[in-house]
User: What shape does this take?
Amino acid sequence: MNQINKLREEIDKVDSEIVKQLNKRIELVLEIKECKKKSNLPIEDCAREEEIISNLELGESDEKFVRDIYQVIFRFSKSRQR
Assistant: This one.
């Protein structure tokens, strides 16, 4: 059981870092929103979304799983830009 607790502690650390990085991403999205607004650019950029996904190093991750997660991230990002 001690091994499980140690692994769970590591998962908790990873989860905390994920949330921290998601918050940083949101901050950057809001900065991009202002740049797009000034330049009169559209919110949605499908080519950029594909670029982001193709640049990811998936390692052991399932590609569909990662794509699904990023679709949620992209939807949220676009909603924050509107």
